[in-house]
Amino acid sequence: EVQLVESGGDLVLPGGSLRLSCAASGFSFNNHWMKWVRQAPGRGLEWVANIKQDGSERFYVDSVKGRFTISRDNTQNSLFLQMNSLRAEDTAVYYCARGPPGENDGDCNLWGRGTLVTVSS
Amino acid sequence: DIQMTQSPSSLSASVGDRVSITCRASQDITTWLAWYQQKPGKAPKSLIYRASTLQSGVPLRFSGSGFGTDFTLIISSLQPEDFATYYCQQYQTYPLTFGGGTKVEI
User: Fold this and answer.
1) Cβ contacts (< 8 Å) between A108 and chain B: which residues?
2) Contact B96 A47 (CB under 8 A)
3) Looking at chain B, which residue has its C-alpha nearest residue A4?
4) Contacts of A106 in chain B (CB under 8 A)
5) Residue B57: predicted pLDDT
6) Best CA proximity match to A99, nearest among A56, A62, A47, A64
7) Which H/E stretch holds residue A85?
8) pLDDT tens string A38-93
């Protein structure tokens, strides 16, 4: 079955750290751009970060630059998001999403179910 | 950053209605636009990419059109399972940005 399964969401104190994981199956993971997209409670969707197939290109929304790091392990078909210096405004459901194959990034054509990150004291 | 503005933010419709949702980009994105459907408590689902190309398995009652800055998602005959929130997203330029969403309800 083609799917993405996120894990690692938790309740964390402001200033704390968390590492999210996304396990991919059913498709050639190393052929695709991968992304993280988040959704704060009751709010819309916000793109967080992208990574190219070989990890050579990574892009971030300004609000997480210097705090979050996206990475991948193509041998394990896994995507990661290391989140440091967490703030209350980072509270959201974090979705792993698959981008297109090929040289250029594009839309999110497959989504995981999400994992909830809550930043609160 | 490219701002994506959807209208309306919500609409009421009945089964069988034709529904139209508009998405406007703050600058030219040619056809680098996608549409997503999200039901409460669920992950988004991809409907359309490149402004008008349906993802595999998406019913033909969904269609997308537009170029440049103005785009439209049309549901030709609303079905019970179509009541959801719809988002547009541009992928012309980083940061990738989404519209604020349109909630389609009864």
Assistant:
1) 34, 36, 44, 46, 89
2) yes
3) B43
4) 32, 34, 49, 91
5) 95
6) A47
7) none
8) 999 999 999 999 999 999 999 999 999 999 999 999 999 999 999 999 999 999 99
